[in-house]
Design goal:
The protein is of the alpha+beta class. The protein has one domain. The protein contains three helices and two strands.
Length: 134
Protein backbone atom coordinates (compact mmCIF):
# COMPACT_ATOMS: atom_id res chain seq x y z
CA UNK A 1 0.00 0.00 0.00
CA UNK A 2 2.81 2.41 0.85
CA UNK A 3 4.41 1.72 -2.51
CA UNK A 4 1.25 2.85 -4.31
CA UNK A 5 0.99 6.03 -2.23
CA UNK A 6 4.67 6.85 -2.76
CA UNK A 7 4.35 6.42 -6.53
CA UNK A 8 1.37 8.80 -6.82
CA UNK A 9 2.02 12.32 -8.14
CA UNK A 10 0.78 15.35 -6.25
CA UNK A 11 -1.43 17.74 -8.18
CA UNK A 12 -1.90 21.34 -7.11
CA UNK A 13 -5.23 23.08 -7.26
CA UNK A 14 -5.21 25.57 -10.18
CA UNK A 15 -5.55 28.55 -7.85
CA UNK A 16 -2.36 27.56 -6.00
CA UNK A 17 -0.08 27.36 -9.04
CA UNK A 18 2.37 30.24 -8.93
CA UNK A 19 4.78 29.01 -11.59
CA UNK A 20 5.99 31.35 -14.29
CA UNK A 21 3.83 30.84 -17.38
CA UNK A 22 5.46 29.68 -20.59
CA UNK A 23 6.92 32.42 -22.73
CA UNK A 24 7.02 32.99 -26.45
CA UNK A 25 10.34 32.06 -28.02
CA UNK A 26 9.98 34.80 -30.63
CA UNK A 27 10.21 37.59 -28.02
CA UNK A 28 13.84 38.67 -27.94
CA UNK A 29 13.69 41.65 -25.58
CA UNK A 30 11.40 43.86 -23.60
CA UNK A 31 11.93 47.53 -22.85
CA UNK A 32 10.33 50.09 -20.62
CA UNK A 33 10.54 53.55 -22.12
CA UNK A 34 9.24 56.97 -21.12
CA UNK A 35 8.05 59.65 -23.52
CA UNK A 36 7.35 63.24 -22.55
CA UNK A 37 4.73 65.46 -24.19
CA UNK A 38 5.82 67.91 -26.87
CA UNK A 39 4.36 71.37 -26.64
CA UNK A 40 4.76 72.13 -22.96
CA UNK A 41 4.85 70.73 -19.49
CA UNK A 42 1.92 72.63 -18.02
CA UNK A 43 -1.65 72.36 -19.29
CA UNK A 44 -4.59 74.49 -18.18
CA UNK A 45 -8.09 75.39 -19.34
CA UNK A 46 -6.94 78.91 -20.26
CA UNK A 47 -3.59 77.82 -21.73
CA UNK A 48 -2.28 74.83 -23.63
CA UNK A 49 -5.04 72.21 -23.84
CA UNK A 50 -3.69 69.62 -26.29
CA UNK A 51 -1.24 66.98 -25.06
CA UNK A 52 0.73 65.53 -27.95
CA UNK A 53 2.93 62.49 -27.42
CA UNK A 54 5.20 61.42 -30.25
CA UNK A 55 6.24 57.80 -29.82
CA UNK A 56 9.19 57.21 -32.11
CA UNK A 57 11.23 54.05 -32.36
CA UNK A 58 11.99 50.98 -34.39
CA UNK A 59 10.28 48.48 -32.09
CA UNK A 60 6.75 47.10 -31.75
CA UNK A 61 4.34 48.69 -29.32
CA UNK A 62 1.69 46.75 -27.44
CA UNK A 63 -1.07 49.35 -27.06
CA UNK A 64 -2.45 47.54 -24.01
CA UNK A 65 0.76 48.35 -22.17
CA UNK A 66 0.63 52.12 -22.66
CA UNK A 67 0.00 54.07 -19.44
CA UNK A 68 -0.44 57.81 -19.03
CA UNK A 69 0.77 59.36 -15.78
CA UNK A 70 0.33 62.95 -14.71
CA UNK A 71 0.21 65.18 -11.64
CA UNK A 72 -2.90 67.24 -11.04
CA UNK A 73 -2.40 70.58 -9.28
CA UNK A 74 -5.30 72.63 -8.01
CA UNK A 75 -4.28 76.27 -8.46
CA UNK A 76 -7.75 77.67 -7.86
CA UNK A 77 -9.48 78.61 -4.65
CA UNK A 78 -12.29 76.07 -4.92
CA UNK A 79 -11.78 72.47 -3.88
CA UNK A 80 -11.23 70.20 -6.86
CA UNK A 81 -13.19 66.98 -6.39
CA UNK A 82 -13.28 64.63 -9.37
CA UNK A 83 -16.33 62.39 -9.38
CA UNK A 84 -14.24 59.35 -10.29
CA UNK A 85 -10.60 58.46 -9.53
CA UNK A 86 -9.95 57.45 -13.15
CA UNK A 87 -7.66 59.77 -15.11
CA UNK A 88 -9.81 59.43 -18.21
CA UNK A 89 -12.40 61.82 -16.76
CA UNK A 90 -10.13 64.75 -17.70
CA UNK A 91 -9.95 63.94 -21.43
CA UNK A 92 -12.84 64.68 -23.79
CA UNK A 93 -11.19 63.49 -27.00
CA UNK A 94 -8.46 60.98 -27.81
CA UNK A 95 -6.87 60.58 -31.23
CA UNK A 96 -4.32 57.99 -32.25
CA UNK A 97 -2.36 58.75 -35.41
CA UNK A 98 0.13 56.20 -36.72
CA UNK A 99 2.32 57.04 -39.69
CA UNK A 100 0.20 60.07 -40.53
CA UNK A 101 -3.02 58.03 -40.62
CA UNK A 102 -5.73 58.42 -38.01
CA UNK A 103 -6.46 54.96 -36.65
CA UNK A 104 -8.70 56.00 -33.78
CA UNK A 105 -10.57 59.20 -33.02
CA UNK A 106 -12.78 58.93 -29.95
CA UNK A 107 -14.92 61.94 -29.12
CA UNK A 108 -16.31 61.95 -25.57
CA UNK A 109 -13.43 59.67 -24.56
CA UNK A 110 -14.27 60.23 -20.89
CA UNK A 111 -17.84 58.99 -21.23
CA UNK A 112 -16.88 56.03 -23.41
CA UNK A 113 -14.11 54.97 -21.02
CA UNK A 114 -16.43 55.21 -18.04
CA UNK A 115 -19.04 53.11 -19.83
CA UNK A 116 -16.45 50.38 -20.44
CA UNK A 117 -15.31 50.68 -16.81
CA UNK A 118 -18.82 50.14 -15.46
CA UNK A 119 -19.31 47.10 -17.72
CA UNK A 120 -16.30 45.33 -16.18
CA UNK A 121 -16.85 42.72 -13.52
CA UNK A 122 -16.52 43.79 -9.90
CA UNK A 123 -13.39 41.67 -9.51
CA UNK A 124 -11.72 43.33 -12.50
CA UNK A 125 -12.57 46.80 -11.17
CA UNK A 126 -11.06 45.92 -7.78
CA UNK A 127 -7.95 44.59 -9.55
CA UNK A 128 -7.62 47.75 -11.67
CA UNK A 129 -8.04 49.93 -8.60
CA UNK A 130 -5.37 47.96 -6.72
CA UNK A 131 -2.98 48.28 -9.68
CA UNK A 132 -3.67 52.01 -10.03
CA UNK A 133 -5.05 51.54 -13.56
CA UNK A 134 -8.11 53.69 -13.22
Amino acid sequence: MEAHIASANDKLVEGLKFAVPSVASYVNARESVTFWPSGGNSYAPNGVKVIKLQLNGDNWLDCRSVKLFFTLKNTGTTVLTPRHPGAYVFFRRARVIIGGQTVQDTDYFNRTSHMFYTLKSAERRIHDYAMGLL
